[in-house]
Structures are given as structure tokens and as C-alpha cells.
# Entry
Amino acid sequence: MNSLLVASNVILWAAVLGLALLVYALTRQVAALFERIAPAGALTLNESLTAGDPAPEVDVQDLHGRTLTLGGTPSDDAESRSTLIFFLAPDCPISRTLLGVLRSVAKSENWVDIVLASDGGTADEHQAFVSEHGLAGFPYVLSRTLGESYGVGKLPYAVLIGEDGHIAALGLVNSREHLESLFEAKERKLGSVQQYLRQEEPEFFYNAQSGGVDQ
# Structure
């Protein structure tokens, strides 16, 4: 009986040790896979504008009747700030999920102004959307001309205009990561995270885009 008990304990500990080694091996594989996955940046679908182009100058009015000039060459006496134009739709669920991210950016990033923009629906509908989600602190523009000028086709879409009046980054944004990639691209002076990967690790970028993983 004692010999059977000892044998069962040995088998049990061997199983536990084997399981621990298996978990360790899986952890290393997950870590290696995480390092190989390319960061998901905002997808650039715009065929009329690219990063580095002068931002089209468009005069618009927000829902409060205030006139805003977006894009164009900044005046010499203007405060040097960037502008993020976030194109959304009140009935777009992804747009709604990113509102909290925009509030966070507005509080933490004092170098950029955020402007919300849309081109459909009535002013009353958008006013109700602003009240429902507490967006009164953002300039909110309802303008089809603005969307057309920046080549917006799908939503939500964001355009980051640098302090010099040129487009720093732009693209379709479906997550916090996509939105933050615009800031990362501006900091690295690249149009997108994908462009950075193409320059720094072309083989890695190819594998990431094709779905393969290099060994």
C-alpha cells in the first residue's frame, strides 16, 4: 500500500512538473508572437490627400454659430497648436465608443485641439447627440464641404493637422490604438505606423501584412 502511495505521488508530481514546463513554453511562445505582431495603425483610405500635404483651408461654423477656420497656413501671430478633426456619425456605434478616448486626449494632450465633425442629419439631431454624450466642450461642426475637402469616405475618420498647417497623419480609426497611432506617426514624422514598419523592418512588415510569421 505504501509503495502504491509513493508511486502515485511521484506520478502526480511528475505531471505537475510537466504541466509547469508546458505553461512556461506556451508563455514564451505568446511573448514571441506578441513581439512579431505589427501594431495596428489607422488605415489610410484617402486617395486625394496624404501625410505631408497642406491641409485644405475650410471655413465652417459649429453648432453654436462660431466660425472656425480649419487647415490652411497658420498666421504668424497664431498659437502653434495641432488640430485633430474627428469625423463621426451619431448612429455609428464605433464613433460612440471612441468618445471617451477623445475626452481623455483632450485632458492629457494640451498641444492639440479636437474638432468633431459630421455631414449628415439635422442640427437638432446633432445637438441632442452632444447633450446625450456630454460633448459641449468640443467644437462640433456639421459640414458636407469639410468632409469632401478631406476626402472622407468611411467613418469614423480622423485627420491630424500639424502646427505648420500640413497633414501630419490621417486614416480610418476603429479603436483607441488606431487613434493613438496618428499621434505616434506625427511624433516620428511619418504618415502612418505602417510606413514606419516598411522603413525600419521591411521583412517584418511583409510577414505581418501577408499573415505569415517569420521563423
The first helix runs from residue 2 to 36. The longest strand covers residues 112-118.
